[in-house]
Amino acid sequence: MAVFRPRQAKAHRRKWGMSDTGELHRVLEIFVPMLATVVVLGAVLWALHYLLLVRPKTLKSSQRFYRQLAMLGVTVVGVLAVILALPVAVETRNQIVQVFGLVMTGAIAFSSTTVIANFMGGIVLRTTGRFCTGDYITVDGHFGRVTERGLLDTEIQTETRELVALPNAFLLGRPVSVVRSSGAMVSVELSLGYDVHHAKVERLLLEAAARCGLAEAFVQVRALGDHAVTYRVNGLLEEVKRLLTMRSTLSAAVLDVFHEHGVEIVSPGFMNQRRLDPERLVIARSEEGFAGEEAPARTVPAEKVVFDKAEGAKRQEKQREALARRIEELTEAVAEGEDEAQTKSLKAELEAREAELRALDEKVKAQKEEQA
Q1: Nearest to residue 125, comparing CAs of 71, 62, 69, 53?
Q2: In whole angstroms, what is the distance from residue 85 CA to residue 66 CA?
Q3: For residue 130, what pLDDT is reported?
């Protein structure tokens, strides 16, 4: 078997008029355009990432979302530019471009009902602003507080402290009930026999609502059944974060008020189940010292335990927005400042606020990593 030695290789190149320098130039001519495209693309992506996402310290979540979309578009265009710069024949390059286009088209077609649908749903939900972080929402039987609004889904925390991820397409295709920040209606429904006059029932229900501190309370007669009348008391709760606690408090107040006034809350068939003295009232014995008084605070508020993540997310978002506004105000004041001493003081506060904002972002990031 013949061995191809270095001397023979050099002689071979001299025979055909080739040299080491010429071969290097040829290789560079082939690969330099592609390498230059990759280097330029990397530099452009790094610069855009720094200018759009890293450098600005006062970006809101919605602004960051749209800038991430722009980065995604630039990345797709960059990949296409690298394909066009490949050192291959024109026909081969066109085939690669066609394959890339088919892959993108196929991905969009096959994912249109899932990923793309959720992606577009996230854009629509953010654009319309149907709800914000910390809001109470109800959708298709799911009730809870919004903890996070993501690109593909929205996370809520339910009454049982569970975290439920709802796809954005799911939220977009169904009616979403949002509790307004200005106040929420709290109601309790009960049924009483026809032997109790409705005027007395309405008065007692209004008294229970007033005892809970609900505003603009009113009573409705919901139904006239075969054996009982159904009533509902409604009141406006201005501090919506106490929604769960107030529902329980209102129910307890209704029991207390009715028992204090000697009104039994029993089913129409109660007397048919056991024999009772007609003069005996079916009223639970109140604990000593609590008769006619509000129930003591024996437990922590339900919202503090159930919606801890939602409450924290809302508080952090408000804190971040306040810091962003203050940093923007300080930046403008420093730019327009004429007094050197005042400008120095403003710069010091600006640096402190920026440090506080960075610390808040790091804290949020750490919490997400712990939960992951």
Answers
A1: 62
A2: 29
A3: 81
